Every structure is written in C-alpha cells, then in structure tokens.
UniProtKB/TrEMBL annotation:
Keywords: ATP-binding, Cell membrane, Glycoprotein, Kinase, Lectin, Membrane, Nucleotide-binding, Serine/threonine-protein kinase, Signal, Transferase, Transmembrane, Transmembrane helix
UniProt record similarity statement: In the C-terminal section; belongs to the protein kinase superfamily. Ser/Thr protein kinase family.
Enzyme kind, highest EC tier: transferase
Organism: Triticum aestivum (Wheat)
Classification via Gene3D superfamilies: 2.60.120.200, Phosphorylase Kinase, domain 1, Transferase(Phosphotransferase) domain 1
Domain Protein kinase: 377-664
Highest taxon, organism lineage: Eukaryota
Segments for region (Disordered): 711-733
One family name in Pfam for this protein: Lectin_legB
Positions with biased composition (Polar residues): 715-733
Protein name: non-specific serine/threonine protein kinase
Record EC number: 2.7.11.1
Length: 733
C-alpha cells in the first residue's frame, strides 16, 4: 500500500506540474482560440445548452423584445401561425446569457504580453451554436440574425427592426457609445451589403467593417428547403483577431473560415458585457431560431503578484518536477517511518503540501469552512452515500467561476471520504489525479479540496437538477416527482454523456476508463445538460495499453446491469466495458426502466429489448410515460445503438467516437442481429487484449460459455457475479 500511495502521489505531481506549466504559458497561444482547451477549469467560464426550455427565461437567459423560447429553441423573432402582417413583420428581439462576462481588464504598469497600447488584457473566447433561419410558407426571407456582444441585457433599441437587426437604430447607428459587436448572418441586401446572403462583422453599426458572401461556399442562410447550420466564432484576445466558420449541421468544423478580421474588444465593448443573439424582421420576415449553444470564455482575474514566480516555475519544470518527485519520495518515507514508530499518521500533511505545490491546482478549502458550509455535515444536507464516502450540499464563498458573482455565495457538493489511513489517501489521490486535469463541458467540475485534521474532502460544482436516475425513477433516492423528462431532453442527455466518453477515451492525453458509468453518476445542471461525475473508480491507462487492472485486491467494480460480462472473468476495466455501461444507460433513458428489472419473464432490460427487436416491435420498449411524444426515428436510433453497445463480444461494440457521430445523425447505427449473440470467452476475434500484467506477473483468463450472459446470470450461474441489484462499486449513488 505504501508503494501504491507513493506512485499515485508522484504521478499526480508530474502530471499536474506539466499541465500547470503549460497553462501558465499557453493563454491565447493560437489564432483561433484553441488554447482555451488547455486552460484549467478555474481559468475559463463555460456554459452549454443542448436545447432550450421556457423555464430558462429569467434564470439562465434574459429574453427581451419580441424574442421567446418555444419549441425547444430560442425564437429571436416571433414564431407564430397568426397573421404575419401583425405578428411577424417589423420585429426585433434579443436573448442573452443572464450574467455578464468580463472581456477585458486594465493592466497595471501599462500592461505586458496580451496588453495593447491601451494597457488592457483581453479575454479569448470560443462559441458554437446551431441556427435555423426558416422561411414560413417559402416566403422571401429578411432581415437578419446576429451573435451579439452588448453592454447591457436591456431591450433592443426602439426602431431596431428592419435592417438594424435588433442592434442599433437610425439615431444610434455608428455611435461608439453603443459598445456593440456582432457577427451577422444577413438575408436582405442593403446599399452597403455585398448581397442578401452574407456574413459580416459589425462594430457599433449595421454597416459591417468586414463581410463575405456565403454564396461561393455553397451556403444559403435561409434556403427554400429547411437547413440547420453550425456557426463557430473564435476570438483571440492576444492577437485581437476574430474568425468565423460555418457549415451544415452534420458537417465537421471547416478548415478555413468564412470570415476573418482584426478586432480589439478592449477598445470597443464594455469591460463586462453580455453575450447572446439578436435578430429582426422588416416588411419581409423569417424565423430566426437558435437550437443549441456552447460558450467558453477565458477568465480575467486580477493580476497576481506572483506572476514572475509562476513563469520561473514553468521554465524550470524539467528540473523542478524531478526535484519535487524526489522530495515527495523522501517526505513520504520519512513520514511513514515516523508514523510506524510513533503510531501516528501524518500523510495528511504530506498530501496537502504536495497538492498546494501544484501549478494551476484546484482551490484549497479550510476544513472549518467546509464544516460550516455543510452545517457540520448535517444529515439533512446529505446528497448521496456510498462505499467511498458521503456527499453533502454546502454553500461557500464564490469560487470565481462566474465573473459576475464575485463576493457572492455559491452552492457546492462536498465529498467526504470515509476510508481512513493509506487506502483513503489512495482513493483521494486517484480521484484527484484524474479529475483535476480533465476539461470538458459534460464532466462535473472539480472546485477544490481539503485534507486537514485527517479528513479527506473534494469539493465539486453543485448540480441543481440532481442525477439522471432521480428524474427517471420515482424509487430513486432523492427522486423528483413531476413530469417525466421530455424526449428532446433525454436525447440531449445521451448525446452529452457520449461526448464526455469520447473525450475520456480518445481526446484526453491519457486514456481514461470511468468504470462506473450509470444513471446515478450522470448529473444534470440548471439547464439539464448532462455532466458525468463520480471519478472515484476512474483510472488512467497508458495509450499503448487497452485495460486497467487493480494492483491489489482485485474484484469486480461497478453496478450489476452496467458491468460488461467479460469483466467477471478478467476483472479488468476497458474502454469496451465503459461502452457496455453506456449502452445500459441508453436503454434506461429510452425505456424508463432500470437495467436490472423483471419484465415479461426477463431479468435484464437488454434481453427484453432484444426480444422486441427480433419481433420487429422495438419501439414498444419506449417509456410509456412519454405518452407517445417522441421522435420514432431517433427512438429507433437510440434503441439500436443501446443494443449495439450491449453486444456480448467486446470488439463488436462501437467506439466512443463512432457513438458520438451516430448520435449526431451523421452515421448509421451498426447492424444489430435479431437474436442476441452468445457470450463466448475468450473472444475469438482478438477485439482487445485479454492479457494483463500486474506486479510483474502475467495472467490470462480462459472461460467459455455458449449461453447468453444475462440468461446465464438469471439462471443462477453467479460464481463471478454479485447478487442482483447490488452495487459492487462502493461509489456514490
């Protein structure tokens, strides 16, 4: 155990030091804002909407003018079947994110690096949104739609309909006092426009400072046949440069932009500005709909007096990390020896010292602050409990994740580890070493940590809508009565989890297997966006390896119904076993039933769905609570994908990248046989490495069964399996 703790501690130091040094030097490093990907979670503000609901008005979004939220979309101008002359023409509206974002700050001493001659540091940002500009009854479209940066969340100016796009009016157009910047998609030619199908950059005026026709690129903003487009806008605060990309909804981000231009936001917009959309109609009209929106903005905290020290550490990382690693080894050895001699465990002090030394590490909380935040860990504040510990709801001083909320109180989830001494430290460091470096909009964000008084605590972003299972099942702990999750929300949740899984498996610098993917570990934020959480069982594996095996103790980790059949023979976690668990989640979301359930003589949901598929009645599996309100094509897609992910042979399951493409509707689902294949082990097609090396020895498992996994389980062949409904992970539920 001592060796294992030391290895974990050293890996945490090495990985985080490398990540922290890169972060401190890479801000605004690329022209398209790509450097935002490597900033730590505390260095960016992020929000994501996979769809929109009326209850977001006044909470997550400010809706003003003639805008509305209906039909799962932002209607920036009205969408109605009423008389067009009164309800659709000469309208303007705006929808803005509810809180302002800091886009620049004054630099002390005239400013350096990012700062311009005006002495301002300007934030980089990146946004992508899906837009549908629709012609009702095939009418000629007009006027236009825009992504907007505005100084306030107030109503659009009076008279801002027609060619003013909800941005300015005849009196204010061109005034620097507007402090408005917009990227327009214009469908009506004015004397100053190149045509009626162009993208433009507007600064305090609807007369663009740069524009480009989209016609040569084969893009028509509002074609006769309905079309959806993704628009990417990347802004580099260091280079003072903006690039705009546009492509069909199902296409990847293009290599070349449709528009690129210099832009100094520090000289143009308010220091704290609002981000969102504006649009207008004139005597001609169109429906301006935003279907989804993601936003990432670099945070601009006050300059630190330790900037020179941070830079020095970054430059000296190769030497410093080695020295730090050696110090960690020596410090650990000394403390363990002393503990054995004196009967005292001082690992808390070592771990705390090591984590504090990490560049870009998470925030350290004082234990007393977290005790106050949770009302002394009051049972009434408990959110969940498992073998790894208890999670409490709490309120702490602002963690600066929201630039507009400085000095306010924010809600957090505090995970208190229950296992003490070396094993507790192993669990604590294993989780921290992974989650501290992960950066993805569909992962629960780590806020901070505490390791005082022998208590091990991790502090996470609080998810106000709880976990997915609380919305699917009335029997779930903390269940939330009311209307079941609508179909669009369910599809968006599955998409979000798939995106997170693709990141963990393929896009992070190490392959990460979650090992406990289930509905109770999928959290929902205020916008019902899915966030995968609980990394207590997650482990990183080398990029040239395929699986992770426990070094000691062994055993099957996870929850029955989500555990892939091969895991009971190999006791190994793989990307394929994660995909199997994801398949169980898909079927759970579509059917509104738990993976382990008794229905029509079956003991597992997957077997029942496969039988319906064989009989050509797969759609009969859809949750009756939806009362028929679902898209049949999408339901068929999810059910077939869920079965494909549940294939008994690991190599036959789709990869996470393919899953994401399937859910984007850009790839067909894999062919699913009408009869569920038998589980045979070892797999004969070499789909993944069935050998593992642990502590210097090599082992191989050879087990063959001609019966299906779930059928074998149901008949009582449970020599490798826990009892039904038992959670073997010890993780939080």
């Amino acid at each position: 155990m001592a060796v294992r703790f030391l290895v974990l501690l050293s890996l945490l130091v090495l990985a985080s030091s490398s990540s922290g040094s890169t972060t401190s030097l890479a801000t605004n490093a690329t022209a398209d804002g790509g450097s935002l990907d490597i900033l730590d979670a505390g260095s960016v503000t992020e929000f994501s909407f996979s769809n929109f609901h009326p209850e977001y008005r006044g909470k997550n979004l400010t809706v003003v003018g003639d805008a509305d939220i209906t039909k799962g979309a932002l209607q920036i101008t009205p969408d109605t079947g009423n008389e067009a002359a009164h309800f659709l023409t000469n309208k303007s509206g705006r929808v803005l994110y509810y809180a302002p974002v800091r886009l620049w700050r004054l630099e002390k001493g005239g400013g350096k690096g990012n700062a311009s001659a005006g002495g301002k540091k300007v934030a980089s940002f990146r946004t992508v949104f899906t837009v549908n500009v629709f012609r009702p009854s095939g009418a000629d479209p007009a006027e236009g739609f825009a992504f907007l940066i505005a100084p306030s969340a107030g109503e659009p100016p009076a008279g801002s309909y027609g060619g003013f796009l909800g941005l300015t009016n005849a009196t204010t157009d061109g005034s620097a006092a507007n402090q408005v910047v917009a990227v327009e998609l214009d469908t009506e030619k004015q004397p100053y426009d190149p045509d009626d199908n162009h993208v433009g950059l507007n600064v305090n005026s609807v007369v663009s400072v740069a524009n480009a026709s989209l016609t040569p690129r084969g893009i028509e903003i509002s074609p006769v046949k309905t079309a959806k487009y993704n628009v990417w806008i990347d802004y580099n605060g260091s280079a003072r440069h903006i690039t705009v990309y546009m492509a069909d909804f199902e296409a990847a981000k293009p290599a070349s932009p449709v528009l690129a231009a210099p832009l100094d936001l520090g000289a143009t917009v308010a220091e704290r500005s609002y981000l969102g959309f504006a649009a207008s109609t004139g005597t001609k009209y169109q429906l301006n709909c935003v279907l989804a929106w993601n936003m990432t903005v670099e945070k601009l905290d006050e300059p630190s007096n330790n900037r020179g020290l941070i830079l020095g550490l970054a430059v000296g990382v190769p030497v410093g990390v080695l020295a730090l690693g050696a110090a960690a080894a020596l410090g650990y050895y000394v403390c363990v020896v002393r503990r054995r001699k004196l009967g005292r465990d001082q690992g808390s002090a070592i771990t705390g010292t090591m984590i504090r030394s990490l560049a870009g590490g998470p925030r350290e909380f004082d234990y007393r602050e977290l005790r106050r935040a949770t009302n002394n860990f009051d049972e009434r504040m408990k959110l969940g409990q498992g073998g790894y510990g208890v999670v409490y709801r709490g309120t702490v001083a602002d963690d600066h994740s929201n630039p507009a909320a400085a000095g306010t109180a924010v809600e957090v989830a505090v995970k208190k580890f229950s296992r003490a001494s070396t094993q507790g430290q192993n669990d604590f460091l294993a989780e921290l070493s992974i989650i501290n470096r992960l950066r993805h909009k569909h992962l629960v964000r780590l806020v901070g940590w505490s390791h005082d008084n022998g208590e091990l605590l991790l502090v996470y972003e609080y998810m106000s809508n709880g976990s997915l299972d609380q919305h699917l099942f009335s029997s779930a702990p903390g269940s939330r009565p009311g209307q079941p999750l609508g179909w669009e929300l369910r599809y968006g949740i599955v998409q979000g989890v798939a995106s997170a899984l693709h990141y963990l498996h393929d896009q992070f610098d190490q392959r990460v297997v979650h090992r406990d993917l289930k509905a109770s570990n999928i959290m929902l934020d205020a916008a019902f966006t899915a966030r995968l959480g609980d990394f207590g069982l997650a482990r990183a594996i080398e990029t040239d390896k395929t699986s992770y095996t426990e070094e000691a103790g062994g055993g099957v980790h996870g929850t029955v119904g989500y555990i892939a059949p091969e895991c009971f023979h190999t006791e190994k976690a793989t990307r394929e076993s994660d995909v199997y668990a994801f398949g169980a989640v898909i079927l759970e979301v579509v059917c509104g039933r738990r993976p382990r359930c008794d229905i029509d003589g079956f003991h597992f949901l997957v077997d029942w769905v496969w039988r319906l598929h064989r009989d050509g009645r797969a759609l009969d599996a859809v949750d009756p609570g939806l009362d028929g309100a679902f898209d049949e094509d999408d339901a068929e897609r999810l059910l077939m994908l869920g079965l494909a992910c549940s294939h008994p042979t690991p190599a036959e399951r789709p990869k996470a990248q393919a899953i994401s493409q399937i859910l984007l509707r850009s790839m067909p689902t894999p062919a699913v046989p009408p009869f569920k294949p038998s589980f045979v082990w070892p797999a004969t097609d070499g789909g993944f490495d069935t050998m593992s090396t642990t502590a210097g020895s090599t082992s191989s498992t050879v087990v063959t069964s001609t019966s299906t996994w779930s059928g074998n389980f149901a008949r009582g062949s449970q020599n490798h399996a826990p009892a039904p409904e038992q959670d073997t992970s010890g993780s939080l539920v």
